[in-house]
Amino acid sequence: MQDETRDHLQQEDADVALARDALRLSAHVLSRERTQLASQLLGRLPEHAGSRLEALYRQVERFAPRPCLLPRRPTLSPAGGPLLRILEGHSSTVYAVALTLDGKRAVSGSGDSTLKIWDLETGKPLQTLQGHSNWVSAVALSPDGKRAVSGSGDNTLKVWDLEKGAILAEFTADGNVYACATAPNGKTIVAGDSLGRVHFLSYLE
Q: Quick one: pLDDT band at residue 5, thresholds 50, 70, 90?
């Protein structure tokens, strides 16, 4: 009897974890359109599940607003898989992403000429950094996570204050800046451009 009870509780825990994962993966859709809750859950949760999930399926289908489109089989990125969250906010291709050392924030660079700072626990953008006039192809962060460095098709390398969202310094190359990196001291920056040149720069405050 104890083994059966333990197995039942473990199955319930697994069902709850799957439902939580499905909601997290659907957050970028539900933040815009809450009426898609049923379609998102049914599209991400497994067909054959425990009794708790089966009850959830019936409930969300019953209370889904009509008219609606509900998937007959799960065809979206599945809950319980390697994908943890979808970050949505850029209006063009994302070319570069960098993470803070604590793993709590990310900075992305896009073809829409902006950088975005993300809260990885909530999946929400915290700030949009504007200043480049062409696609952002490279992003790097200082070791303390307070500054970002970005390279762009506008031939510039920019250093950003991530708290204020302001440009601290700028270097203009002779070609598009495709790559950049920061040294552990946070003061040395290396950038590569479309002419095959590698620039070693010192950040002075």
A: very low
